[in-house]
Each structure stands twice: as structure tokens, then as C-alpha cells.
């Protein structure tokens, strides 16, 4: 089969296009999927470059770093084996099943849940892996995954549109769940023009919250279509003044970087900060006095509960959320697609299709 194969940590040159890669066979409880489309996400970039290593302290650049720790280059703080086929956000058709998997799945259109679990202990976060990281994923014509990691989706959306949901929207829903967002909250979303940012806007609105989006002014019209109550520039010099009289109870952040202290400083007493990324840089200035004197709560969000994926699928089928598909590239042009993703060339999600 055709596949884009990652050969090691480093720059985009670490991807090698192969048209003779062995087609996988489904094992026990697995399904074989003919990939229709696969979304890109930050995990793909950060795993390729080794950005998750504590040896790296700069922002996500998408390029190779001078030093990457050998013991902690992935999201889970452990090495992975190469060659590896990345790609977590698969939509496609089941063409075969392994022993124990339901044959009725053959011919069904499905989307994947990227969190791999020990199904005898599914809530144990220490026993999780990620599709396209700890095992081969969807940057190929075919892929295999446990049948319990897929959902049959009833939707008129295209494969490419559906492939925008799995990572971005489950990440966003997981963040909002950890922060306990309700209709009593005002949620500030930095980076609202990105895939997760746009999902945060929609999903927070679905919960009835008031939403303030932050994005570069060139992208305000596109962000406006997601339905925020207010849109601010990406990094106002005086954030409190830009907010006017708004009181922010939740900051939902995947940006981090040097602007981070200003985000924390405007949280109201008893406010919550939830985080699932640091694309502008993982090292921030943290004033503990603001943290404890304001009675703030911080939550990190990576591994999500299985029901979060189930909720997102239900929202799709109800039409409660919509895809933000920015561009589709041929799988053979994955390097160009990922560079566009890194450069934030587009507003929303980018997918590749075999």
C-alpha cells in the first residue's frame, strides 16, 4: 500500500513516501479500515520533532531541535519505535475484521478514537497509548485499530469534514469537561482560529457559556462564523482593558508562551485555567501569589475519558457542531500539508487523503 512513513525524530525530511509498504492485517478484536481521510494535529508535529522532550524549551516550530532527550521525546514521556506511520484522525470504511470483532462492521463508515486503552482497565490513564504514536496510524491507504476505538457515524458530511473532529473536538471537550464549564461561565479562548480553538468556541457555546475568542485580526471574520460572543486581537497589550467589563471565569488554552501571565491575571476569583497545549512555548512565568490569592484552579487535559469521544460523535450526528475544514491535501503531499499547519496558513483543520 501507499504510506507516508516517519523514520525518526527531526524535520519534515524524516517523512519517506512509500508505495510498497506492507498492508496491515487485523488482529484479534481489530478492524481494517480503508482510509478516506486523516486529520493533522499538533501531536503529529510534536512527536516528529521530539518537542515533548524536557530538553526542548522553545515554541513548536515544526523543525528539528538541536537537542532532544532520548528517553522522553513523545507525549507519554517515553520513546517510540521507528519506522512509524502517524495520523490519529481517521475516517474511512471497514473492509475486514479480526477474530472477535463484529463482522457487521464491514462496509460501515467509521471514525477513530485515538486513545488506545487496556480494555480490561479502560479508565487507567497509565495504560493508555495514542494512535499513530504507540502504534501505526492513518497516514496510509489502510490501517488497523481495535474495534472498540471506532464509531459508526451517521452523517452527510464528507470523509474530509468528519476527519476534522476526532482530535481537535475531543481535546476541546475534554478541556471543558475538566474545567466543569456550564452556562454560568465566561470562557476566554486564545488561539481561536486553530482546530482546537475553533472547537472550544463551538463546544463552550453548546454548553451555554459566554465565549470570548482571541485570534489575529486577519482571521476574525472566519472566527466570527463559529459564534463567539466577542472577538479580541490575538495578544492585546492591555488585556483587561480590551475585555472591558467582562469577567472571565475560565481560560481554555493551548497556546502558552510569553503572553501566558496576562491570561492568568485576568481570571476572576475562583476561576479555572485548563490547558492542553503550549504551541507558543512551554516555559512561562508563574506568579504563585496570583494562583493562591485568587483561589484559582488549574487542570491539565490530555488523556480523555471514553465517553468524551462518544459525546462528540453524538454532537456530530445531532448537527450541534460543525466542521471547520481549512484544506485537503493528497497524502503524498503530507510534508506540504504539515508545513501549512505549522505556519497557520489556514483557519481551522487540515486533512490528507490517500
TrEMBL record:
Instruction: Identify the InterPro entries for this entry.
Output: ADH-like_C, ADH-like_N, ER, GroES-like_sf, NAD(P)-bd_dom_sf
Would the keyword Transport be found if you checked this record's keyword annotation?
Answer: no
Pfam (any one): ADH_N
Domain Enoyl reductase (ER) residue range list: 10-352
Enumerate the UniProt keywords alphabetically: NADP, Oxidoreductase
User: What GO MF annotations does this protein's record show?
Assistant: NADPH binding; oxidoreductase activity, acting on NAD(P)H
Please give the name of this protein.
Alcohol dehydrogenase
Amino acid at each position: 500500500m501507499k504510506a507516508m512513513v516517519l523514520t525518526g525524530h527531526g524535520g519534515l525530511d524524516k517523512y519517506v513516501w512509500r508505495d510498497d509498504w506492507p498492508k496491515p492485517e487485523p488482529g484479534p478484536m481489530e478492524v481494517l479500515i480503508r482510509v478516506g481521510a486523516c486529520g493533522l494535529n499538533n501531536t503529529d508535529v510534536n512527536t516528529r520533532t521530539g518537542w515533548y522532550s524536557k530538553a526542548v524549551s522553545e515554541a513548536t516550530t515544526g523543525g528539528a531541535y538541536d537537542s532532544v532527550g532520548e528517553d522522553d521525546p513523545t507525549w507519554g514521556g517515553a520513546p517510540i519505535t521507528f519506522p512509524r506511520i502517524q495520523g490519529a484522525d481517521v475516517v474511512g470504511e471497514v473492509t475486514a475484521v479480526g477474530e472477535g470483532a463484529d463482522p457487521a462492521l464491514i462496509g460501515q463508515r467509521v471514525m477513530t478514537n485515538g486513545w488506545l486503552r487496556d480494555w480490561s482497565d479502560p479508565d487507567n490513564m497509565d495504560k493508555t497509548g495514542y494512535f499513530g504514536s504507540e502504534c501505526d496510524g492513518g497516514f496510509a491507504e489502510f490501517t488497523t485499530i481495535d474495534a472498540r476505538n471506532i464509531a459508526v457515524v451517521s452523517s452527510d458530511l464528507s470523509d474530509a469534514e468528519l476527519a476534522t473532529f476526532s482530535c481537535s473536538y475531543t481535546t476541546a471537550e475534554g478541556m471543558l469537561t475538566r474545567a466543569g464549564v456550564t452556562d454560568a461561565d465566561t470562557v476566554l479562548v486564545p488561539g481561536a482560529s486553530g482546530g482546537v480553538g475553533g472547537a472550544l468556541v463551538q463546544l463552550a457555546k453548546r454548553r451555554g457559556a459566554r465565549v470570548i475568542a482571541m485570534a489575529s485580526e486577519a482571521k476574525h471574520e472566519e472566527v466570527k462564523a463559529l459564534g463567539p460572543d466577542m472577538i479580541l486581537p490575538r495578544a492585546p497589550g492591555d488585556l483587561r482593558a480590551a475585555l472591558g467589563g467582562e469577567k472571565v471565569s475560565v481560560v481554555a488554552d493551548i497556546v502558552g508562551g510569553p503572553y501566558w501571565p496576562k491570561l492568568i491575571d485576568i481570571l476572576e476569583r475562583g476561576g479555572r485555567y485548563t490547558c492542553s497545549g503550549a504551541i507558543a512555548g512551554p516555559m512561562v512565568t508563574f506568579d504563585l501569589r496570583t494562583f493562591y490569592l485568587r483561589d484559582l484552579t488549574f487542570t491539565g487535559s490530555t488523556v480523555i475519558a471514553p465517553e468524551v469521544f462518544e459525546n462528540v460523535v453524538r454532537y456530530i450526528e445531532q448537527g450541534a457542531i460543525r466542521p471547520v475544514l481549512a484544506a485537503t491535501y493528497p497524502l503524498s503531499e503530507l510534508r506540504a500539508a504539515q508545513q501549512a499547519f505549522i505556519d497557520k496558513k489556514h483557519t481551522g483543520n487540515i486533512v490528507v487523503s490517500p
